[in-house]
Amino acid sequence: MEKYSVLMSLYKKEKPEYLRTALDSMINQTVKPDEIILVEDGPLTDELYHVLKEYGEHLTRVVNEKNMGLGLSLAKGLVLCRNELVARMDTDDISISNRCEMQIKYFEENKDKAIVGGQIAEFIGDASKVVGIREVPCKDEKIREYIKKRCPFNHMSVMFRKSDVLEAGNYQNFFCNEDYYLWITMALMGKKFANLPEILVKVRVGNEMYMRRGGRKYYESEKDIQKYMLENQLISKGRFLINILERFVVQLLLPNRLRALVFKNFARNKNGRKYECNR
């Protein structure tokens, strides 16, 4: 099968045990990665450096002398990836064992696709305690409709063609929306997308995640995304106003506890599959 790279970015606040689990889930893939590019985004803790030393033979470490943020860190790491296929992975999540094998097979059968993502299962504490599933549409035309309302990919689940991402300008410094901005840019260029129907990654969630998805800075970033889509005629003025109003309420008006309830009950699926995904 075609060789692939794994692209990760590590920040000092990560827990060492989560990093170990995430690395193990990629190292032990049924089709093993050719390389794991891990960007150290600023100085780390002694505990994290110890973990990196343990896994030294599996990692190509890239060091940022100071914290640059996720977008610029991924952009730096992507340039150094030696393979055309690149799998994104976060340092606190768990990929299922055949995730990358399924994605590579899809790319081999669909040469026109630039990105292949998948579904995610969110859990708290123990990976078996799933609290919700974030489902996204699978077919290109459905993804193009969904992108007008919300991000159509689960970022930690995607595998993409390096050349297509670089053609779109690579990752940019866009607060908490590095991926969404990139996908929109690629959509405007006419790149083809897909998501697999399977759950590819188990994702840790908790109060910190819902806090990150609120506040003035996050709202302003989301508003800039909507303006970008409006300026490029991807969405109408009506859709723009609806999107802005929804985000204003959820991200600025709701306290963290209520925001968590909204995500758990309205933005996640607990009772069966939402999308029919025929490959």
Descriptive report:
This protein is α/β, with parallel strands linked by helices. Helix content is 42%, strand content 21%. It contains 11 helices and 9 strands. The mean pLDDT is 91.
Described by the principal axes of the CA atoms, the overall outline is globular
Task: Identify low-pLDDT runs.
Answer: none
Helix content: 40-55%
> Element order, helices and strands?
EHEHEHEEHEEHEHHEHHHH
Main sheet overview: 9 strands, mixed
Give the oligomeric state. Answer: single chain
Question: What distance lies between the first and last C-alpha atoms, to the nearest angstrom?
Answer: 20 Å
Structural class: alpha/beta
Rg, alpha carbons: 18 Å
Total DSSP E strands: 9
Give me the number of helical elements. Answer: 11
Q: Report the portion of residues in β strands.
A: 15-25%
- Give the averaged pLDDT, no decimals: 91
Keywords:
11 helices, 279 residues, globular, alpha/beta, 42% helix, nine-stranded mixed sheet
List the helices and strands and how they pair.
Blueprint: E1 4-10, H1 16-27, E2 35-41, H2 46-54, E3 59-64, H3 70-80, E4 85-88, E5 94-95, H4 99-109, E6 113-123, E7 130-134, H5 140-146, E8 159-161, H6 162-167, H7 178-188, E9 192-204, H8 207-212, H9 216-231, H10 237-253, H11 256-266
Parallel strand pairs: 1-2, 1-4, 2-3, 6-9
Antiparallel strand pairs: 4-8, 5-9, 6-7, 6-8
Helix pairs in contact: 9-10
